[in-house]
Amino acid sequence: MRSRTHILEEESLFELKRTLPNEWVIREKPKDYGIDVEIEIFTSKGEYTGIVFWVQLKATDSENLKDHKSIRMPIAKIRQLASYDLPVALFRYNSKNRTFYFDWIKRHAYLSSSSKKKSFNIEFQDYHLWSKDSTNHIISFLKSKIRFSNNLFSFPIKGFLNNINAPDKTARKLSSKISKNIAIIEITRDRNLANIEINVLENRIVLNLSGAFGGSIGYKKGDLNNEDLIFKAFKDCLILILFQTDKDLNLFKFINDHKLLDEVINHPGMLHYLMPKLIASESGNHFTKEIVEHVFKSGNPISATIIQTIIFLSSKKIISQERVESYFEQVIELSLESKNETSLATSYYNLGGYYRGINVFDKAIHFYNKAYKTEKSYLKRGYFCRELAGILFELDFFRLSAKFYTKASVLEPDNIFLIATLGDAEFYSGNYEKAFNHFDDFLVKNANQNHDKYEFSLKYTICKALIEILEIKQQKRNINKAYEILKSLTQNELQESSKLDELVKMDALNPIIWSYFSTVFLKDEDLTMLFVSSLIQAILIKRDSKIWAYVAIITTYEGSPSELLNDIVNTAYFYCREDFISELQDMIELEEYDDFKGDKFLNYVEELIKTPKEYPMELRFWDKDEVKIIEL
């Protein structure tokens, strides 16, 4: 036996299809998302508009008129429907007189946003009743929503004041104040012409900008007679709406014109909400000083962290370097004035970290040094020693880098990756045996491969060759002298193994020497040393896709270390990305590789590529005596 509910559902769907224009395409949807039908709008001439919306049908056969014009829904459901990319309309069908009330669910998501209850009573007004004008209202609303969602609009916009359950006097006074004082909104009495709906409730203002943006600011029910307070709530809510658009100039002008900066700064919730745009937007930089000073003097660690997090996003080119430097200059100046050494040291450290993130290593080392001199305890912090070691490494101070990596490994004994980076510092310092042992230790302890091991596996192989084949366990690299001698040698001398051996004894990590060695080993058909010399060149030059492609192909020769192909491919891809694959494609098409099963090999290489592991940027600040870490 069919239930009355199913009969009502079918009846409501039938009536909806009968009510909507014939040229609109109606498709029934699975119930998974709470959507009953999808409607695609075509013109009366059958022309495609690209406008689509969804509908949830709610039918009733109640005798009670109140049930026809309202429905109670879980707030979680309202928010779910409002979150969809396509706009959702709620159609309330009454089987007694076969009529529909309809409204957009997003509107009720805004109206219920502050409710602490689990459900919300959606109430339809007389103007929500389906009429001959409803199709035009739907088309107009959806076009407006698209325009506003894409920020394809300009101010002023039209606003309609909708009094839901506040005293008429309150609504009239607010309407008057908006008309007199808010230049970006023109009040209209025709709700269908309005872009922004200003809903006045007994305890809050709720704004709805064409279903694209919304906001809500509350007040006490007893404050409804306070005109200034209600108007202030409206302005605060309008700030939230402007923030959601990309109309920064309008936002900043509105804050300035109405002298609302103090209001924003001293309202913690609003400050945290608006701070990203107030700090990040280049057009609003005149706000920065006031906000930074307020946050600094308030001692609020959450606010401070928000600012610092935004600043660190500059490494993603969101904020200019000039803006970041200006911010830190302010904080440093405030710290010096208040003689707050903890804040000063933290600012020096974070500024150094910023420069480290954008690869300006000379400035990074300068501010890390200032942080240490201000707060000696930094050298007892593992992360500081680790990061300082990395900066020194990038500046080619390899021995000093190894010293700080060693210190960091003592302070952070569980950080396995430090073993690999220490090996790297020793490797470039010329301590090949020490580097070999560190790489070996890392590869053993990283058996579960929490860290990428590819490059360090190749360096382990290089160190082993330098120690066992060339008998170089350690050397004080004489980089400049090796280059001077290279320049003085003739082309014939550069083909002599004895001359090249002398140069390797000065600096075993000179890629030019190994390029000449490759020619000699190729002529001598010494495949082992040809591989070693080519691999050393690839590791030292890093971003030369041609050398990496050549090394990868060598591993396919009989007697070559084919087990290293995975490490070679993933290291090459890390540094060269798709250029490596492209170069490999070009190389296998060369005539000398005619007998080589190139396509099969290249397909295998592509299967080996893994997405490189990424490590989050860490931002630190001090809350009292405890360090807080935020990963970005």
Tags for this entry?
Trna Endonuclease, Chain: A, domain 1; single chain; 54% helix; Serine Threonine Protein Phosphatase 5, Tetratricopeptide repeat; 14 strands; five-stranded mixed β-sheet; 632 residues; Rossmann fold; alpha+beta
Strand count, sense and closure of the main sheet? 5 strands, mixed
> Could you please say which CATH topology of one domain applies here?
Serine Threonine Protein Phosphatase 5, Tetratricopeptide repeat
Strand content: 5-15%
Average per-residue pLDDT, rounded, comes to 90
Number of helices: 28
Query: What's the alpha carbon Rg, rounded to whole Å?
Result: 34 Å
Task: Estimate the helix proportion, in percent.
Answer: 40-55%
Give the N-terminus to C-terminus distance in angstroms.
Answer: 59 Å
What are the segments in which pLDDT stays under 50 over at least 5 consecutive residues? none
Query: How would you sum up the global shape?
Result: elongated
* CATH architecture annotation name of one domain: Alpha Horseshoe
SSE-based structural type: alpha+beta
List the strand order in the largest sheet.
Answer: 1-2-3-5-6
Number of strands: 14
The CATH class of one domain is: Mainly Alpha
Walk me through what this model shows.
- With 632 residues, this protein is an alpha+beta fold.
- Among the domains are: 128 residues, Trna Endonuclease, Chain: A, domain 1 (3-Layer(aba) Sandwich); 96 residues, 3-Layer(aba) Sandwich (Rossmann fold); 157 residues, Serine Threonine Protein Phosphatase 5, Tetratricopeptide repeat (Alpha Horseshoe), CATH 1.25.40.
- It is 54% helix and 13% strand.
- The chain has 28 helices and 14 strands.
- The strands form four sheets. Strands 1-2-3-5-6 form a five-stranded mixed sheet. Strands 9-8-10-11-12 form a five-stranded mixed sheet, sandwiched between helices. The protein has a two-stranded antiparallel sheet with strand order 4-7.
- The protein is elongated.
- The protein starts with a helix and ends with a strand.
